[in-house]
Amino acid sequence: MAAVSPERFDFSEEELLESGGYDAPLLANQVRCHGGFDARGEYRSPRTVHRAPAIAAWQARLAAEGHELIRLDPALMPPQYPSVAQAKLLLAEGVSDPIVRALTIISIVEGFGAIIRDVPVPDLRASFREPVGGTALAHLGRGLFEAHARDEAGHRDEGGHKQLWEAARDLALENPRVPGDVLMRIMGRRAQRQRRRLLPELDADLERMLATMATVLAVEIFAARTFDWGERLLSDPEVSARPEEAGAMVRYIRSDETPHVEYLRTALSEVAARTLRTVDGRILPGRVAVDRLMHANLRALTSERPRENRADVREGLADAIARAGRGDDLLERLDALETPWTPPARTGFEPRDGDPAAPAHHGDPAALA
Ligand SMILES: [Fe+2]
Ligand SMILES: [Fe+2]
Q: Cα dist. 222→140, 279, 305, 330 in Å?
């Protein structure tokens, strides 16, 4: 493996997709998956030989130029429903359907991550007033989106996170029956969500790319909570048939997620440090665009989405309990384990000075410069 000079900011697509060699492959329930083990038996994530140092170099450059990386308040992350304690109670009582469903949803949503490679990348030199050479932004369409897609959905004969989660579920819960309507219900819910334009002053492709990145960044960061839930549950010998293997599987997935979070927050921070060109020949501070997208996303992910998820689980819960031959008292015991959660009042990305759409500045032409 060639050492990467810290001064290097440009990488080819092949380099960003390079995994290097492994001493042993990662097999998940007999499925060959990405990544593998080095001579010491340590897991190494796929496609990180150059991608990891590249991201570190772009971050160092941003810091050297006096810009901060965007951060999300961890208090914004909603808890998983059912919680680990609630999930354990259900499994112990033989009500495994809601847990199998939750784990299957995770695997499907991981697979959806592949859509990131279909996001058109507009001409970024025309989109920004400042240069974009040698940044994460300049590499989105040249390896970063593709590496991300492969990590999530697998590539060729190698499984990715989708297959790893299926394996973790099947090992821990001994090849459970998977409800047939999981995908359909996710699709139905997605179809109901309306996408409205938050940055109508920008070219539609540019807005679509930035909006997708902001959404995926928030989802990736929030997934840490869900994955922690999965790891704790599936590595618990009281409920998991293969606690060590299933728990390790989730840990490998979690370590693969680091580059996703890091390249997206780097690229969005690079946007925030720049100036966007609008379709009518004016400009929009990149910071305003990023704040507007992140604020809207975080509002949805901390309010409607946890309510929706909970309602969805509750809908099938009474049925699943009845099917398992358990009584209503189980629902009561489950509810007694509940700790209420309210999202923080602020997302940390509230509109601030310089946003022409912010209430205090509405219609202020000076803000558009
Ligand atoms: Fe993933
Ligand atoms: Fe990811």
A: 22, 33, 12, 29
Ligand nearest to the CA of 220: 2
Q: Tell me how far the alpha carbon of residue 142 lies from the centroid of ligand 2, in angstroms.
A: 18
Q: How far is CA 264 from CA 210, 257, 315, in A?
A: 10, 11, 35
Q: How far is the CA of 180 from the centre of ligand 2 (A)?
A: 25
pTM score over 0.85: yes
CA distances (Å), 365 to each of 276, 282, 353, 357, 369, in order?
A: 16, 10, 13, 11, 7
Please provide the size of the chain in residues.
Answer: 369
> Residue 155: phi, psi to the nearest 5?
-150, 125
Ligand 2 mean position, distance from CA 255 (Å): 10
* Distances in whole angstroms, Cα of residue 226 to Cα of each of 69, 79, 109: 24, 8, 12
23-60 per-position pLDDT tens digit = 999 999 889 999 999 999 999 999 999 999 999 999 99
Token readout for 235 is 């590595």
Span 301-318, mean pLDDT?
89
Q: Give Cα 267 to chain centroid, integer Å.
A: 15
User: What would the pLDDT profile of 325-356 be if each residue is shown by its tens digit?
Assistant: 988 899 999 999 998 899 999 999 998 766 76
| Domain boundaries defined on the chain | 81-359
Beta strands in the chain (DSSP E): 24-28, 31-37, 43-44, 275-277, 283-285
Cα-to-centroid distance, 39 and ligand 2 (Å): 26
Name the burial class of residue 160, with classes exposed (0-12), middle (13-18) and buried (19+) by CB atoms within 10 angstroms of its CB: buried
In this structure, how many other beta carbons lie within 10 angstroms of the beta carbon of residue 53? Answer: 16
What angle, 0 to 180 degrees and rounded to 10, lies between the N-to-C axes of helices 145-153 and 161-172? Answer: 20
CA of 161 to the centre of ligand 2 (A): 8
AA identity, residue 167 = A
CATH number of 81-359: 1.10.620
